[in-house]
C-alpha cells in the first residue's frame, strides 16, 4: 500500500471509529437524564435501574471515545504535519474551546458515575445533563473545525502565505451551521435507533419486558424526532454544498455534464472511465430543485471542473445514495411509530414494528459514516478546499502502511471487545435488575 | 497574552505529569505487587483513580491543543521526527484507558480479566516510558531536520541512552507519586505499610535512574549538569528537591499523608524545573545546534489572543468544578 493512501485510510479509519463512540457520548447522557428524571419524579425503581444499566454502557463507550479522540489529536500532526503547520493557528479556535467542553464533560462524568448516594439527588441529575450538554457542545465545535476545511475563511492567502489570521471568523465559517445541525441530528438518530433496536430485540425475546420497554420508549422518541428532521436539515446541507463546493455536489450526484434542468439520479452504477452512469432512475428537474430550490435551475457538472480538481465520483455517489436511502427509510419508520403513538395502539402487539426497529440497529450509523464519506471524499483532492492539496500535506515519513495495519488491528479488536462487553451487560440484565431490590453499585 | 498561553502550556504538562503520572504509577505499582496482594491494590486504586482519571487525562489534551494551535511548528516537528515513540505512546494510552474501564465494567468476572489486567499493567509501564523518551528526545539534541536516511531522521532522534534513561526515570517518578498517593487512600495499616514500602523502592529506583540520566547526558555531550548546577534557579530547585526528599522520608515514617502528597508533588515539580529552566524557552534542541524556542515558534497574534482568552475562560469554568471533584472523592483523613 502506498504511504499516501495508507495515511488517508488511517485517518478515515480513526475518524470513523471515533465518531461512533463520540455520538454515543453525546446522546446517551440525554437518554439517561430522561430516565433518571422519571425515577426522581415517580420513584419507580425500574427507571433507576435503567439509568444505571445505561450509565455502565456509557462508561465503556466514553473511555473508548476519549482514547480514540486523544489518538486523533496527535494523528492530525503525525499524518498531516504540513496541514497542521498552517491550519493549526487558523482553525484551532474550536479545538481550544472544545478542550474546555471536554474537560467539563470528563469532570461531570466523574460526578455522575461515582456520585450515586453521595450527592444531592438533583445535583446528581444535573451533572448527568452537564455531560450531555458539554458533549454536544464539543461535537458542534469539532464539526465547525471540519467545516472550515470545506469552507476556509478567516485568513488571506497571498503567495502561498497565510496572512491576517482571524480564528473567530474561521470558526464561524459558511459551512459550520449546516454541518453542525445535520451532525447533531445524525447523532440522535443513529444512537437512538441503535439503542431502541437493541431493546426492541430483547422485548421480542420476552426478556425483562418491563425494563426494556421503558428503555425502548425513551430511545425511540429521540430517534424518531431526529429522523424526521434529518431530511430537512440534509436539504439545507445540499443547498449549501451546491453554492460552496459544486465539485462535491456533482460527484454526489454523479453529474458528469452540466444540465439545465438537472435530473436526480437514484441508484445506478458509475463508470469513472467512460464518465457514465448506468441503470439509474431519473427524476427530471429534481436535482435542480434540491440544489437551488428551482426546478429549472442549471446545476454545474464535473465537465466544468478542472480534471485535477475532481473528487472520486463513484465513492462519493454511492455513499450519498446510501445515506439518503437510509434516511428515507428511517423517516418512514418514524412516521409509522408516531402514527401508532397517536392512535394509542399498544406497542407490544405490533411485533412487526419492533422488528423494523431491530433491522434499523446498524442503519443510523451506516448513514452517518456514509455521510462523512460524502463530506470528506467529496472534498478531495483538497485538504483545505481550494487552498492546499491533501497530497502536499502528508507526512514525509515512509512506512505509514505499517502504522495503518497496526491501527486497523487495534480498532478491530477494540470493536470486538466493546461489542462483547455490551453483550455481557445485556445478558446480565435479568440477574442485576430483575427484582425490585436496590442494586448496589 | 503569549505569557498566559505559555503558562498554561507549562501548567498542562506539569499537571499531566503529576496527576496523569500518578495514574500511570498506580498501574506500575500493580505490576510490581506480589500476586496475593494484587486484588487489594486494584481495589484501592480503582476507588482512588476511577473518578478522576478521565479528568487527569485531559491535561494531555490541553497541552497538545495548545501546541498545535499556538505553536504549530513545534507540534509538527515533534510529530514528524518523533512519530514512532508518539505512536507507541498512543497505543499505550489506548490500551491502558480501555483495559482499565473494561475490567471494571465487564459484567461477568472470568478469564477475560486475566487479559485486561495484563494489558493494563504493561501499558501503564510502557506509556510513561515513552512519554519520558519523548521528553528526553526534545532536549537531547538528536533531532536532525537535515537527516537524509530513515534511521537518522526517525529512529536515532529518540533511540539513544539519554532518552531511554529519562524514560526510565519518568517511570520511577510515576510509581513514586502513585505510591505516595495511595498511602492516603487506604485505611488498613497493613496496606499503608505496603504502599510505604513501594514508595521507598520507587524512590530508590528514581535516584538510580536519575543518576543514569546524568551519566548518559555526560556521554552524549548534553550540558545537563550545566543546566542544573550552573544555573541559580536550577541549583535552588535541585536543593529544594533534596530537602523535600529528606522531609519526605521523615513524614513517611510519621504517616502524614496529606502533607506527603503535596511534598511529593513539590519535589517532582522542582526536578522538572531544574531540568527545564536553563534552556527555557527553547522547547526542542536540534542536532545542528539550533533550537526551536516557544517565543519564536509562537503563532500569529490574533490566534494567541483568542487561545489565551479561551484558556482563561475555560479555567474559570473548570477549576472550581475540578476542585470539588477531587474534594468529594477523596478519602477523608481521620
Ligand atoms: C443518521 C445519519 C444521517 C442521515 C439519515 C442523513 N444524513 Fe446527511 N450526513 C450525515 C448523516 C446523515 C453526517 C454523517 O452527519 C454528515 C457528514 C458531515 C455532516 O455535516 O453531516 C452528512 C452530510 C450530508 C451532506 C454533505 C454536507 C457537507 O458536505 O457539507 C449532505 C448534502 C447531506 N448529508 C444530505 C442528506 C440528505 C438529503 C438526507 C436525507 C434523508 C440525509 N443527509 C440523511
Ligand atoms: C468523525 C467523523 C469523520 C469521518 C468519519 C471522517 C472521514 C474521513 C475520510 C473518509 C477521510 C479520507 C478522505 C480521502 O482521503 O479520500 C478523511 C480525511 C480527513 N479528515 Fe475527516 N472525517 C470526519 C471528521 C473530521 C473532522 C471533524 C476533522 C477535523 C477537524 C477531519 C479532518 C480530516 C483530515 C485532516 C483528513 C485528511 C486529509 C484529507 O483526506 O482530506 N475529519 N476523513
Ligand atoms: C465529527 C467529528 C467529531 C465529533 C462529533 C466528536 C465528538 C466528541 C465527543 C462528544 C467526545 C466526548 C467523549 C465521548 O463522549 O466519548 C469526544 C472525545 C474526544 N474527541 Fe472527538 N469528535 C469528533 C472528531 C474529533 C477530532 C477530529 C478530534 C481531534 C483532532 C477529536 C478529539 C477528541 C478528543 C481528544 C477527545 C477526548 C476527550 C476526553 O478525554 O474526554 N475528535 N469527541
UniProtKB/TrEMBL annotation, chain A:
Membrane disposition: Multi-pass membrane protein
Keywords attached to this entry: Cell membrane, Electron transport, Heme, Iron, Membrane, Metal-binding, Transmembrane, Transmembrane helix, Transport
Primary site of residence: membrane
Protein's cellular compartments: Cell membrane
Keyword ATP-binding part of the UniProt annotation: no
Bilayer-crossing regions: 12-37, 58-80, 100-116, 123-149, 180-203, 215-233, 318-340, 352-374, 400-423
InterPro entries referenced in this protein's UniProt entry, alphabetically: Cyt-d_ubiquinol_oxidase_su_1
Keyword Transmembrane helix found: yes
Pfam families: Cyt_bd_oxida_I
Entry superkingdom: Bacteria
Family: Belongs to the cytochrome ubiquinol oxidase subunit 1 family.
Name recorded for this polypeptide: Cytochrome ubiquinol oxidase subunit I
TrEMBL record, chain B:
Top-rank taxon: Bacteria
UniProt KW Cytoplasm keyword: no
Residue spans crossing the bilayer: 6-32, 53-74, 80-102, 122-143, 155-180, 201-219, 231-252, 259-280, 304-327
Protein keywords: Cell membrane, Membrane, Transmembrane, Transmembrane helix
Primary localization: membrane
Record keyword Membrane present: yes
Record InterPro entries: Cyt-d_oxidase_su2 (IPR003317)
Localization in the cell: Cell membrane
Membrane-related topology note: Multi-pass membrane protein
Family according to the record: Belongs to the cytochrome ubiquinol oxidase subunit 2 family.
Protein name: Cytochrome d ubiquinol oxidase subunit II
Organism per entry: Pedobacter lithocola
Organism ancestry: Bacteria, Pseudomonadati, Bacteroidota, Sphingobacteriia, Sphingobacteriales
